[in-house]
Amino acid sequence: MKKNLNQKLINLVEYYNLINSNILLSDHPIKRTSQNKSFAFVGTKHVKLDKLKQKIKSIKNCELKKNATNLVFGDGNINSKIMIIGEGPGANEDMEGKPFVGRAGKLLDKMLASINLDRKKVYISNVVNYRPPDNRKPTDEEIERYLPYLKMHIEIIGPKILVLLGSTALNSLVGNEVVISKARGKWIQKSIGNTKLWVIASFHPAFLMRQPEQKKLAWIDLKMIREKSKILKI
Ligand code: URA
After folding, report:
1. Model-level pTM?
2. In a domain, 207, yes or no
């Protein structure tokens, strides 16, 4: 009987040694899906971006990655002070491995041109880097999985202005309590890592193709970006 009790105690001590007592004793809820990744890449911007790309390529057990043809990482000027974030690649982007090359991308190019910008002057990426099957929205779990990579991407590029296109980008980076129809066209200041940013949300070009009457609001947002670029001397 005593021997049994001793063995039980030994097992219990071993068990406690194996598990993370910080988690056990903390009164914060455990976020099971959070990867809590922290990367410390060194080197030039090119090197850091390449390392980030490799890190994303090494993601395991991801539905998005399994179904996709190519990683869609980013496009444009890596030294730009304006970074644009969409939702996720569509079929054309998946085929070409570049963000915003399909119909929504053509509209984005036109929107940028209206304020004298183009892909040589901005940098573009997405919340998730692999195409969601059937162009569905990425799930909360998928967003959470790719968020540390996106934040690192933003930190490496180091923009002064971050443009969030659509609700997925807005909710991923600003929070789930905000809605695009209310949050668009308003500047907020935000820090991502060591990067201090002016953030503005606007409608996603794919949404504008479905609801062209909203383009007048998108035009207001674009003018705000033009004005802020002037003020920040970008
Ligand atoms: N829609 C997005 O959000 N991103 C792309 O790259 C293409 C379409």
Report:
1. 0.84
2. yes
